[in-house]
Design goal:
The protein is α/β, with parallel strands linked by helices. The chain contains 11 helices and 16 strands. Helix 6 runs parallel beside helix 7 (243-266). The chain is globular and about 60 Å long. The protein starts with 7 loop residues before the first helix and ends with a helix.
Length: 450
Amino acid sequence: MTNTPLDRRTFLELLGAAVSTVAFPCAARAQAAEARPPNIVLIFADDMGYGDLGCYGHPLIRTPHLDQMARDGVRLTSFYAAAPVCSPSRAALLTGRYPVRCGMPGNTGPGSEKHLPESELTIANLLKSRGYRTMAVGKWHLGHQRPEVLPTGRGFDAWYGLPYSNDMRKPFVQTDEPLKLYRDTEPIEYPVNQNTLTERYTEEAVKFIEAGDEAPFFLYLAHSMPHLPVSTSEQFEGKSDGGLYGDVIETIDWSVGRIREALAKKGVSDNTLIVFTSDNGPWLDLPDRMLNENVERWHGGSPGPLRGAKGTTWEGGMRVPMIACWPGCIPAGTRNAQVASTMDILPTLAGIAGVAPPTDRTLDGQDILPLLQGEAESPHEYFYYFRGEHLQGVRHGAWKLRREDKDGDAELFHLGRDPRELYNVAEAHPELTKDLLARMRGFEREVRKP
């Protein structure tokens, strides 16, 4: 597929019939959905580990608002980011496609010419075609070189945030380009006061919610934390038993509570889907360049019971927390161990909003609302683990096959019995190992087709 930008007419032809007859998930709301689909709040943490939240087992960090959200909705325990690093993960989230398929297998940053190809359609593009107000708050990291590749050029009415990761500045990265806080297409602050960044993101999000009229809204809140260097304000600093990193996680938890409070005051809680997840696992085994401005090696998060961390295709690098809450539509207090991923969010939101996803390209995500409601199993027979352009693993049911490089030995793990990926049982299951290797080779050929 070429990366030719869509002209307006082609875009409208793709989406003009978007208000489709897609069945609305909650029968009691079906008629209302035709007139006004639900609001959507998508919260995306940066480098938050699988084990960083109380409801995922952290013994010290207190996350009462996220824990309550889990009690009010569903918590997924086999939910994956599509990549173990930032830009590819965000590209997959917003397009519903593996990063190698949507042209964003690696990170961008200061001095880079990389950006999400303009031929790609985002969640915001789709929801705007259904009449949604849209806003991005927080980290973008999908290109910043010109206004057309910033959020306001990719389907968002407004944006307040950073163009890339909060460490992409001196002394952490050797660049002469200062890190800037943007409003829409204009920088408004540099150097950036990161101590109050999470709180300011939250207040911008709340203002967007409060300014609403009769139109549905889509809020994409992409926190810059807990990506290193972590920091928080005096209101939260020193309050967590989990140290500075715990302070930062508890600030994000406060943010979730503040947003839910704003939804309640606005009277729209019952007609709002909230999704909370992370772009990849925690950043451990830090490079020496990060040990500046009082950053310590123990400022990273926790993969919980999983092996590995950010930058790897072990479970700790790609399996992340995911909580979804939608009163009356998603049963409260449920847990689901079925496989799903951030790529499923686009088709799921499209289905909820009653908009047809694009048909001129391959979507790797599936509508998982029935899974969130406990009415169906995972629609995915296979999930693939990419590190950059390299396919390193595949999951099939409880089985995971992984190899570090193309010529390396394959390792086979049963994630049900061995979530830490300690016991390679490939020799005991030669046929399964052979079949999964063949499956990986076939998928590599598929995604690399022009």
